[in-house]
Every structure is written in structure tokens, then in C-alpha cells.
Amino acid sequence: MSKKVVLVTGANSGIGLALCERLLTHSDQIHLCLACRNMQRAEAARTALHTSHPGADISLLKVDVGSLQSVLEASKEIKQRYKKVDYLYLNAGIMPNPQISLKAFVTGLFSRKVISMFATGEGLLTQQDRVTADGLQEVFVTNVFGHFIMIRELEPLLCQPGNTSQLIWTSSSNARSSAFRLDDYQHTQGVEPYSSSKYASDLLSVALNRHYNKQGLYSSVICPGLVMTNLTYGILPSFFWTLIMPIMWLIRIFTNTFTLTAYNGAEALFWLFNQKPESLDPRAKYHSYTSGLGNSYTKPQKMDLDEDTAETFYEKLLELEGRVRDKHRAQEDRR
Predict the structure, then answer these.
(1) CA dist 78 to 114, 117, 163, Å?
(2) Which of 39-43, 64-68, 94-98, 100-104 is predicted with the least confidence, judged by mean pLDDT?
(3) Residue 94 carries which DSSP code?
(4) What reaction does this catalyse (predicted)?
(5) Catalytic residue from among 89, 194, 212, 263
(6) What is the pTM of this model?
């Protein structure tokens, strides 16, 4: 297959769909695989993309990265379809049952910290997590571990002799070390699983580069900025966003982190598609920015993390992978 194989998880809406639109506009020499949990929405996304790009080469893949069985089945399907994967966009993610402190929100809205509050959600957002059928925390497995298992399963396709491949994670400005603990990396004891999971993906990306660069596989993380997507709208009632949207557009004059639209939020994801992975900084987070005039651009920022912590976290994921696979094999044997 001469075309570049590009697989995007969570591709049926938001910045995932916007990325797909931008990639197809940029090049007709790609095979685009929309990896989604909801196949009805995935089909609708493919139809919309074919409307604007009639000759586009687009396939669908059913995968729920929050289910290890689904990830294993999808990975098997990928290996049957393709000989290589050039770009794996690890974009799917959840923020379940977000709760917001209205007092902190109103106070922050009229303070000097308003930009930081919107950009990071620090002190503002909590979530209610739950345990999945695999016995894992849902946010952790969906945002981090499910993708990790997919990478491990697809190693033969990602690590091809003479070929370079890219892993590109959708992280967040909400990724904070204060929400993450190595002794509780699934965040079972806290109330900020989303922030913890995004910091975990930052750590994992650094560790993956350490282990896979010599095999031609490179990992990067991006921050889409403040984007109005289904995930964002789930934080507050839609009418409230309508009321404060003029304020947010006004604030964008003073800060470039308010990308607001999915198209702008996908800027860094798209920018990385056009870069030589060997030239990228493995410890940088690539931010989507939009100027007050509406011009989008990408800017790297060094991540505040420790490489030893990243390596320890990677080792813990390998240990968890072993336990999970043993449990899965035992369940299969009983069937």
C-alpha cells in the first residue's frame, strides 16, 4: 500500500473529525481509518467527509478503547487489513460526569485568573469515575491504558524497518502533576481522573520515545487549547455557554489558547503530520494557538515532568499489561 495509513481514534466528532477533514484537504495520498466506538456516528462522519472529498479513501473500525476486549479485537482487525501504520492519532478520551464549582467559576470569571481558569480548569473541575468490566478505572483505561495496549499490539505495523511512524496523543492543558500519583496512577482515590490521565499520557509519551525511537517509532503530545466540543459542552448547560461566549471571544484578543473551534483545536495535530518525527522534541507539548485575528499556529512548550517518573510509570503499565493479559487468557480458557 503506497498511501500513508492514518488511524484516528475518536474520529467521529470534535477535533478528531476536524483533523480528518484537514488531512483529506491536504493530501489525497492517505488511507484514513476512523476508529470509533459508535459505528452509526462513524458512518455519518465518513459520509460527511466523502461529501467534501468524494474520492477519499476512508475506512471504519469499531473500537472502544475503554474495553480491553474491544481493543484486542480491533488490533487484530488492523493487522489483517494493513502491513503498516504510519500515523496513529490517540485522540479518543472521556471526561465523565463533570462537576463544576459554580462559586469558583463565578469568582474566577471576574478575576485576574480567568484565562488560567478556562485554560486549565484547575480548582474548578472534578469528575465521577467508575470501574469497568475489566476492573480498571474508566477514565484511565479510556484515555491512557487502552491506547497503550493498542500500541503494544500494533508494534509490528508501527516498527517497520526503513520506515518511521508517529504516535500523536491529544493531551490537555488540564494535565497537571498535582493530580497524578505513581502509587495511584489509575486515580482511584481522587476526584480529578481526567487531569491525572492527561498527565499520565504526557509521561507515557516521553517513555515511549525512550524505548521505541531506535525502532523508528516516535511519540508526541498536543494540547488543542480551549475548544468548544461535546466534551466541553458537557461541563455546563448549553445556555450558559451561549451567555458567556461573547466574553470568551473577547478574551481571545488577549490570549492565544482560546482556539474555540474544532478546526483551530486540531492545528497541532495537523502540523505534526507534516513534520519529520526525528526533528521533534520528545519532551515538548505542541500547542494549538489562535491569534485574536483568527490565525492558527503551533508552538511547542517544554513539559514539566521527570523522565525517571515517566520510566517508572511505563514499567508499571507493563506490569499491569501482564496481569490484564493473564486474566484475559484465563477467561478465554474458561469459555
Answers:
(1) 44, 40, 18
(2) 100-104
(3) -
(4) 3-dehydro-4alpha-methylzymosterol + NADPH + H(+) = 4alpha-methylzymosterol + NADP(+)
(5) 194
(6) 0.90
